[in-house]
Automatic annotation (TrEMBL):
GO terms for cellular component: cytosol. One of its GO terms (molecular function) is long-chain fatty acyl-CoA hydrolase activity. The lineage of its organism: Eukaryota, Sar, Stramenopiles, Ochrophyta, Bacillariophyta. The keyword Hydrolase applies. Transmembrane segments: none annotated. It comes from the Eukaryota. Keywords: Hydrolase. SUPFAM superfamilies: Thioesterase/thiol ester dehydrase-isomerase. This is HotDog ACOT-type domain-containing protein. Residues 1-73 form the HotDog ACOT-type domain. GO terms for biological process: acyl-CoA metabolic process; fatty acid catabolic process.
Length: 102
């Protein structure tokens, strides 16, 4: 929603990987990073990790969410471009472009 500067709706959730478990008492940290923007949609990678006395920043899940913003009539609003700065951001955007075109 921050990228669009307005409300968004989820249009897809894909490739959810559950790689470990969360125990009672674990502290869960969730991070979302915008990885690719087409003309009308935004792909975001969401990662979850846990921290506890025994585990430090242990990844537990990752998934890809795609969002669009709609106007009052339900029409899709164009997505702003992503400001890519690092090699990791460019690589993630390139991979997102490939998924989008597939």
């Amino acid at each position: 929603a921050k990228h669009f500067r307005r409300g968004v709706v989820t249009v897809s959730l894909s490739s959810v990987d559950l790689v470990s478990f969360v125990k009672r008492g674990d502290i869960v940290t969730i991070e979302a990073v915008a990885t690719f923007a087409s003309a009308k949609s935004l792909e975001t990678t969401v990662s979850a990790s846990v921290t506890s006395f025994k585990r430090q920043d242990c990844p537990v899940a990752q998934g890809k969410f795609t969002f669009v913003s709609v106007n009052k009539e339900g029409g899709v609003i164009p997505a702003p471009r992503l400001a890519l700065e690092t090699d990791n951001e460019f690589n993630a955007a390139f991979a997102g472009q490939k998924r989008y075109e597939a």
